[in-house]
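Our example copied in:
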Amino acid sequence: MELGAYSVYAWAVFLYLGLLALICIMRAFYTRGDKDFMLGGRTVTSSVLVFSLIATWIGSGSLLGGAGLAYRQGYSELWLSVGAWIAILFCLKIAPKVRHLSGITLPDILERRYNSFARLLGSIALIIGAGTIVGYQFKGGAYVLELVARIPHEQGLIIMAVSVVLLTSLAGMKSLLSIDIVNGILILLGLFAAIFLLMQEVGGFAQMKSQLPKTHFTLFGGRNVIWGIAVFFPVFLLLLGEPSMYQKFSSAQHEHTASRSIFWWFLGVVVIDIAIATLALLGKIKFPLLEQLGQSDRVILDIARFGLPTWAGVLLLTAAMAIIFSTANSFLLAPATNLTHDIIKRFVAKKMKPWQIVFVNRLSIVFVGGLAYFLLTQYKNILEMFLSAYTMMGAALTPALLAAFFWKRATTAGGVISILGGIAGTIGTKYLFGIHNVQAFAHKQLGILPGELGEYVIIPAALFSTFLLVMISIAGPEPESEKWLPFFETKEADEI
């Protein structure tokens, strides 16, 4: 009986991977050139864009790290998510402007607002940061394979890396958009079926609340508002510097298409973040010893495998793989496109033909996938990787990007030095001063309790980057209007 049930879980995951492969192969036949591969031909509708943005943002950081934190701390874990929610609202202004600029990548924006050196620096930061994020998607997928098929973790990492690289390289954005629709539906069905069944089992929300610590339902989980602010900013900064998001805004049919997708993206992410936290807390009731065993990050996977009827467990495990694959595919395509479009095509081989660009982009996907696998070996756990990605992308890029869209006075020198400062601040925080020393200083001088993630260590790097941006911009001459004007105007849909 156990063997039969076990086989069902494994076969469900493998069939899901086969479905993704079939979709990607079919979409590859409709990929005609570099614009199709990188941007889906700029024909993406708002409904498709919504599913893709949701599926991309909800990754293994949410499924494993976020769920594990909710298991340990309760709903106060959502302060990490609130940073993303507010950042998405900023995109109401940013998304139509990105589509209006008609670039391809985030570094396109940096060069247009600042210069080619900003493009190069931004590309380096994105390749490292996004590569780190891809790496922890590999790790999340390996957890699932280990659980459902008893594949050793190291072999699971290799299977995940090869699968993600192959699927992404087949049709690029064309395939990503198609599989994100499937993945988005699976995520919603899997999470809510599990919550419904477990909530019935415990007797409703009131009974759930009575069986858990009271601090799990307070605003700050026993901490203070300073802690809430400190954990808010890392995710806020990361989302606004997230390269796949800008690439997808550029792929929209029109400016109003990009703009209209933001509200539903916001709503979808809020609902799913709360659902993941709720499911983790239900899992704490069903599996109360996971924290003692050091396995709280796997609470949702254990719910799927051991805490639900087989059909619901299969659905939730498939949703878990959908969460991981969508994020891995998007975060792999974005830096590979950066490498191809922003470095190789821009500085090395400027006269490549469309088919050559697609070929080089596929090679870049393989390279970045290999880099992600290497970075994976440099970190002890998913949350530490998540933090490093936050810092590299959020501190180095977000201040300069926000200034590009919202501050006309930002100068080229200010933007470039800001990006350099963010990279230097990241290296300084992580390697020169040490994360634990930064935490100890913040605790002693500011009274900020050290969270288990060291979440707020991005803030010194981001402050340093912002300080350089403001001071150097103010000290220099005002930029010419052609530098900032395209970032403060949009066209009506009928003019596009």
The chain has one domain: 2-380. Residues 1-5, 492-496 have pLDDT under 50 and may be disordered. The chain is about 80% helix and 0% strand. The two ends are 61 Å apart (CA to CA).
